[in-house]
Amino acid sequence: MIDRERLQTVQVRTPEGVMFAYRIASPALRLTALTIDLGAVSVAWSVLAVPVALLRIVSPDFAGWVAVVGYFVLSLGYDMASEWQWRGQTLGKRILCLRVVDARGLRLSFSQIALRNLLRFIDRLPLLYLVGGVAALVNRHGQRLGDLAAGTLVIWEPPEPAPDFRAWQAGKYNSLRAHAPVVARLRQATGPAEARAAWQALQRRDELEPAARVRLFAALAGHFRTLTPIPPEAAEGVSDEQFVRNVVEVLYLSRSST
Amino acid sequence: MIVDLQRFIAEERPKWERLDVVLRGLAGDPWRRLTLAEVRELELLYQRTSADLARLAALAAESDTRRYLESLVGRAHAEIHGGQSRRLRLQPWKWFTHTLPQTFRRRIRAFWFAGALTMAGVMFGGLAIAFDPAAKAVIMPFPHLQKSPAERVAEEEGAKRDRLSGHKASFSGQLMTHNTRVTLLAMALGLSWGVGTLVLMFYNGVILGAVAVDYVLGGQTVFLLGWLLPHGAVEIPAILVGGQAGFVLAGALLGRGENRRLAGRLRAVSPDVVTLCFGAGLMLVWAGFVEAFMSQYHEPVLPYAVKIAFGLVELAALGWIASCAGRGAATRKEAER
Q1: Which residues in A lie closer than 8 A to residue B10 (C-beta atoms)?
Q2: Structural element, H or E, at residue B241
Q3: pTM of the entire predicted model
């Protein structure tokens, strides 16, 4: 599991000593984004084909030149222009929350964007991105040859909503709040890993099967009950899940109110 | 110890949101330059958010908040520590008269290597045709080159109508795109440790040498020069520049005499490789026009002397740009340092 995590993320340490992680985009996501981009180029070209067709009335020869050179420039320049304009994103990447980033976490330079796209000429060989696809599968950061040469990564960057705990259990009665010594003891005895496990269980409760959920919260509640004696009035009529919720709330959220 | 997330987030959230707004503003406009006050604010917000992330990482924080902060810190880090590239401005004339020739000269050894390989190919192709005329069909698999040079010259000079009439422009477009593809492939094949580029350069030379010797031995040297010089004076150097870019890439891969790591070596050469590719592309656009509108016309329509003189002027101009343009600026820059 740890190895898998390592394969899917790249850690960057800033000069300030802070670590942050990039999540590497999977080949399937990248392939889908590429397909969307190919579609976008086709659509853009079919739109541009209308004025080219009108131009053909005036000068068929010049219209032929515009068609040949225009399609070449569009297909080659689309990725470069959109990745430069949208900070490492094309339409397909934008839709799928992918982004091209510098492997060191720095801002992409134009030469990096241009080089990774110019090297599609070799990644496409012999057909259907076989060389690039194999390179991305073999490379632990999923880099095709263009990415390797340009020092770039394609990351998965789903939107991260700003955390908001204001609505979390707002206004609900917490039977533990009335027992300050119990809260203090829980705070003292609970380790970060245990607190995080309880928090995660609550965050993911809807993803669990009902039977598994009951078992999980029973185990967690049982564990917290062993840390300190719980007065009967604080536990009476409170389900295991609610008990865990109350514990997490007093641990994380409401120090001032206890 | 467990941080009081509610209070922590309530206190810090406005700063995170402000940083998010600043970063979105920057993302929306790649040309935007921040004022001093904005830079100070960005740095302050970045430092604060970094500290928050470090605090959360040390404490038992839930992963959503950490991911949110990692995303903010990652984006801000790129803005603050990658400031050099923002200075990029489109200055085509300066690029053409300074950046391109300076880059070309900086990587001149790779150009000479591409040229030497092409020359080796020229000699091989020339000798093959000279000693074995039957090799023509194998070396030059193009129908219009299969007939004898004298026949072709007679045909071209005796043509009653303009066979490119009505599609000169589209023909030039096809030449431009095809040659650009070949040149970019020559560059991209540099990633095969230069082997692919080497083969491509040699093969181009073989065809060129075979055609040249075929026409020289056929007594059509003037026609050959009039036909090839106007566009070849730019097209052949452009392909060599593509090869030069490929060998620069290959040199970074091999890393001979360098103690930097592979990623660092590639990063160091990438601006030069891109500059050379764009330079080659520009040259091929010019060559495409010349080939469609001039090279395909022979005497009596266009005197060979004019075509040859045009080619020589192009060569001289190219040689001057490659060897002299931007030199004064480079010297001044050195002196300033």
Answers
A1: 166
A2: helix B221-254
A3: 0.81
| Boundary-marking domain end, from B64, B87, B110 | B87
Q: Which domain holds residue B302?
A: 92-336
Question: pLDDT tens digits for B119-131?
Answer: 999 999 999 999 9
For the stretch A61-110, pLDDT in tens is 999 999 999 999 999 999 999 998 888 999 999 999 999 999 988 888 89
The rounded radius of gyration (Å) of the Cα atoms in chain B is 28
Please, are residues A220 and A198 in contact by the beta-carbon 8 Å criterion?
A: yes
Residues of A in contact with B57 (CB under 8 A): 18-19
Best B1, B6, B91 residue to mutate vs chain A (most A CBs within 10 Å): B6
B196 & B246 share domain: yes
CA distances from B316 to A133, B223, B285 (A): 44, 21, 18
Nearest CB to B74; choose among A105, A119, A145: A105
Residues B76, B120 within the same domain? no
Coil vs helix vs strand at A229: coil
Query: A203 and B64 in contact by Cβ < 8 A?
Result: yes
Q: Which of A61, A101, A255 sits opposite B166 (nearest CB)?
A: A61
Q: What is the pLDDT of residues A148-185, one digit of tens each?
A: 999 999 999 887 766 665 555 555 677 887 888 888 88
B74 plus B40 within the same structural domain:
yes
The verdict on a CB contact (< 8 Å) between A105 and B81 is yes
The angle, 0 to 180 degrees and rounded to 10, between the axes of the packed helices B168-188 and B221-254 is: 30
C-alpha–C-alpha distance, residues B48 and A7, integer Å: 30
For chain B, 337 residues long, give each residue's pLDDT as a single digit of tens.
Answer: 455 676 777 788 889 989 988 888 887 776 777 888 888 999 999 999 998 888 877 655 456 778 888 888 988 888 888 655 445 567 889 999 999 999 999 999 999 999 999 999 999 999 999 999 888 888 887 777 788 888 888 888 888 777 777 788 888 999 999 999 999 999 999 999 999 999 999 999 999 999 999 999 999 999 999 999 999 999 999 999 999 999 999 999 999 888 889 989 999 999 999 999 999 999 999 999 999 889 888 888 889 999 999 999 999 999 999 999 888 766 666 666 5
User: B98 and B41, same structural domain?
Assistant: no
CB contact under 8 A, A162 and B64: no
> In this complex, do A18 and B277 lie within 8 Å of one another by their Cβ atoms?
no
For residues B104 and B20, state if they share a domain.
no
Among B residues 108-127, those touching chain A with beta carbons less than 8 Å apart: none
Nearest to B82 among A61, A106, A200 (CB): A106
Among B69, B87, B105, the domain boundary falls at B87
B interface test, pick of A14, A86, A227 with most B CB neighbours within 10 Å: A14
Helices A180-189 and A210-227 pack at an angle, to 10 degrees, of: 100
Q: Do B5 and A114 touch (CB under 8 A)?
A: no
Residue B81 and residue B96 share a domain: no
Chain B partners within 8 Å of A67 (Cβ): 170, 173
ipTM of the complex: 0.87
* Cβ distance of A64 and B249 shorter than 8 Å: no
Q: What are phi and psi of A11, to 5 degrees?
A: -90, 135
Tell me: cis bond preceding B149? Omega within 30 of 0 counts. no
Phi, then psi, of A61 in degrees rounded to 5: -65, -50
Is the same domain home to B158 and B81? no
